[in-house]
Amino acid sequence: MSTPLSPAIALPYPVPLERLRTLDALDGRTGSNRAGPEVVCQLAANNDLDAVRVWLAEFHDSPQTLRNYRKEAERLLLWALLERGKPLSSLTREDCILYEAFLADPQPQDRWCGPRVPRLDSRWRPFMGPLQPTSRKQALLIVNSLFSYLVKAGYLAGNPLSLARRRVRNSQPLRQVERFLEHDQWQALLDTVEELPRDTERDQQHYTRARYLVALLYLMGPRVSEVAEHTMGSFVRVRGRWWWQVIGKGRKEARVPVNQDMLDALSDYRRFYGLPALPDPEESTPLIMNLKGRHGIGDNMIYRIVKDLVA
Question: Per the CATH hierarchy, to which homologous superfamily does domain 183-309 belong?
């Protein structure tokens, strides 16, 4: 699938969307996937960058969604220009397959990955590192939404991700919450947690973790192995609603809706360790951490925490 590329845009490193300027040959005016003259385009935009900006403007009233969608559109647009040497409006199905692989390992790393810094900082990069499977699926869902919008608007002739759309959707069905704890058990554990000592720093760490873990086990209904294996980045926000994207038994993927009680418990836990209230889709922080908040814990430790509470 290594097809010859057009000359890539003359940028040594990616730049944020607001600073991006493209060569005329790569701005998408003559993209191979542009809709034909017989189609009335509903957008005034006549290049890819402006078309993407119109799509992003649809989310002006949801800042968190706007940031997430801008990030994924930005990544795709920059990858198309820098790695494929073509505009977004010339991407094919084969390109999309390559892009999915790229998300799992953004190379060259020094070009694409860097620390979390302000967007206008010269060290800014689109990635902090490879995306986890749930983050890759989320990225492709957002990109699919972008392509679909541009097709419906009459800007693009077709959606190169549409062939994979059914596969992506079927891989993330809604999963019914099968509770690890029944309501009376949950309430009893909550009462026990509230009676835990909080005099020392270690006491406070133990109390905070136990309170969060009990909420997680009851409200989300995960298997203990799922709690141990997932990261905070598995919590994602889609069109204003939060979901837990979980890879469960048999490597099957599913979505679990996250209610406000769970969001509150998550936010309290994260703030205790000095983290932002809500996670980033790419965040690698373990879903449940050791008392110092540095590493994750395993299945056995989770069982022991619950066992100690019910003893």
Answer: Intergrase catalytic core (1.10.443.10)
